Amino acid sequence: VVTDAGDLAADMVIHAVVRSVDDPVTESRVRQALVSALQRAEDWQIARITSPPIGTGAGNLPIEESARIMVDIISRAMATATFPQEVCIVVNCVLQFLDTGLNCKQREVRT
Q1: Structure-derived torsion over alpha carbons of residues 36, 54, 64, 31, reported in degrees to the nearest 10
Q2: pLDDT tens series, the chain, 111 aa
Q3: CB 103: neighbour CB atoms within 10 A?
Q4: Half-sphere exposure of 71 (CA within 13 A, CB side)
Q5: What does pTM read for this prediction?
Q6: What is the pairing mode between strands 2-4 and 12-14?
Q7: Is the distance from CB of 28 to CB of 54 less than 8 angstroms?
Q8: What CA–CA distance (Å, rounded) separates 5 from 2?
Q9: Are 85 and 49 in contact (CB under 8 A)?
């Protein structure tokens, strides 16, 4: 689902729903939600998206698992899709991931 961003410093928000009242957060649901969100970015021709680690909040998914899933899905999508052209994952700590297979042209760490 894509909505107006309201008071956020963005034009719109793509909602990635990873759980329901009856279903807990799982790797499969995070994958499905992220694939769907990236498809909405392609459909709406959104050039840049910013996301927190998906599933880590109320879903209690370990941040390392979220990162592994997100790197896999985002890498696949960006290899073939025109949009988004840039994806930024925002975390409030510095993480080190080895052997992710993601080759970045530019890295930026903000604290």
Answers
A1: -20
A2: 777 777 877 777 787 878 777 777 888 888 998 999 999 899 999 998 888 888 887 778 888 888 899 999 999 999 999 999 988 887 765 444 444 444 444 444 443
A3: 6
A4: 14
A5: 0.74
A6: antiparallel
A7: no
A8: 9
A9: no
Question: Residue 43 to residues 29, 50, 79: CA-CA distances in angstroms?
Answer: 21, 17, 16
Q: Give the pair of three-digit tokens for residue 2.
A: 């894509």
Residue type (1 letter), 89: I
Give 54's DSSP letter: T
**Calpha distance 68→7 (Å, rounded):** 31
Residue with tokens 């080895």: 98
DSSP state of 108: -
| CA dist., res. 53 & res. 94, Å (int) | 13
Question: What tokens appear for 67 in the block?
Answer: 């990162």
